[in-house]
Amino acid sequence: MVDRVKFKNVEVSRLGLGNMRLPCKTPIKREANPLIDYDKAQQIVDMAYENGVNYFDTAYMYHCGKSEKFIGQTLKKYPRDSYFLADKLPIWMCKTPADMEKIFNKQLQRTGIDCFDFYLLHSLDKSNFEKCEKYGAYDFVLKKKAEGLVKNIGFSFHGTVEDLKKIVSAHPWDFAQIQMNYLDWKNQDAKTQYQILTDAGIPIIVMEPVRGGKLADLPKDAEAVLKQNAPDKSIASWAMKFVASYDNVITILSGMNSLEQMQDNLNTLTDFVPMNENEFKVCENVASIINKNDIIPCTGCDYCADCPKGVKISTIFDVYNKLKTGEYTEFEAKDQYKNIDVNHTACVKCGKCKEHCPQGIDIPNELAGKINDLFS
Questions:
Q1: Does residue 308 fall inside a structural domain?
Q2: Which of 78, 210, 282, 308 is deepest in the core (most CB within 10 A)?
Q3: pTM summary value
Q4: How confident is the model over 101-135, as pLDDT tens digits?
Q5: Whole-angstrom Cα distance, residue 112 to residue 126?
Q6: What is the dihedral of CA 152, 156, 161, 166, to 10 degrees?
Q7: How many folded domains does the chain comprise?
């Protein structure tokens, strides 16, 4: 059984199942695909539950709004007090304060549950947090907690260190969710984010521990370093082990879309032994190698997928990154790029994608720069 970590008066599984990248019936990118393969996805949930995973995470827009319904239906077969369900309020989708109530009620209806164990203000950065404050989003969720519809209040974060300091000091938080992995430990200063939350006594839920799968599919020279140090361990296990080695992390969310991925994570987080000093140094070395490949830090979350021109942004970046990491030759990359129906040339630089990118990527400039230079 997977390890569990004490949170308040309960125990939460060290491994959590994220429901943003479930298996789907069509090859369209999973994050923006509403056609969830219920049979395959149910097998993943069942395997997780049977091995002690009790934390399940979803959000209003995952799988075009179908993730909440899926996980709610899937968990109905299990006793309600045997698992925790996390959901999120997307403030950027609210045009008026009244929309918070509409979205929350829709989430209850989709999932079919009586309350959310963990409820987050979603994807906070400077802009989203300012809107939350303007609309009274924290007080709204606090009211839901008083009504017994929410048990723990938190936020997921995609901003600067200064943004985080302001958010932490603004309200009492039960927990926070940050992007943390051995690449972003320095690249996005997750190290400082971790310390700010730890010093404030706020437990951490980790998202993107394998960076949307990128840390399971490394450049060949980076992969060789890991294999040399632990030939019997998977590449992804290094990323999971790095995150789990920090004391203030209570749950690590992984968007597992196969039973093999689930088993690998279970192996890593059962009877867990933290990293030693040498293993931390190996991860630091691998991060340096990855950065030298000049990849675009896209995790494929598809928050940018509502491009008014339909540009397939994450697919374009994926082809570029696979070329840079050596998975594609230049010929293969250009051949793959030709099959993208709406490419970078359709971009009108409206900036909408940049506003929604959790990674802070300057998407229009990347499309006009690196992508244009390579594929035009």
A1: no
A2: 210
A3: 0.89
A4: 999 999 999 999 999 999 999 999 999 999 999 99
A5: 33
A6: -50
A7: 2
SS3 150: strand
Asked if residue 331 and residue 270 are part of one domain, the reply reads no
Which single residue is written with the structure tokens 């959000």?
A: 59
Instruction: Please give the Cα distance from 66 to 32 (Å, whole number).
Output: 10
How many residues are given for the chain? 376
Q: Is 137 found in the same domain as 195?
A: yes
**CATH number where 73 lies:** 3.20.20.100
With a CB cutoff of 8 Å and minimum separation 6, the contacts of 260 are none
Q: Tokens 């339909």 correspond to what residue?
A: 310
- The residue type of 182 is Y
Which burial class, exposed, middle or buried, applies to 47 when counting CB atoms under 10 A from its CB (0-12, 13-18, 19+)? middle
Output the CA–CA distances (angstroms, integers) from residue 317 to 39, 103, 155, in the order listed.
30, 31, 28
**Within this chain, do residues 356 and 287 fall inside the same structural domain, yes or no?**
no
Based on the domain organization, do 287 and 200 belong to the same domain? yes
Q: Does 354 reside within a domain?
A: yes
The span from the CA of 314 to the CA of 345, in Å, is 15
Give the domain extent around 324: 313-375
> DSSP character for 36?
B
Domain assignment present for residue 219? The answer is: yes
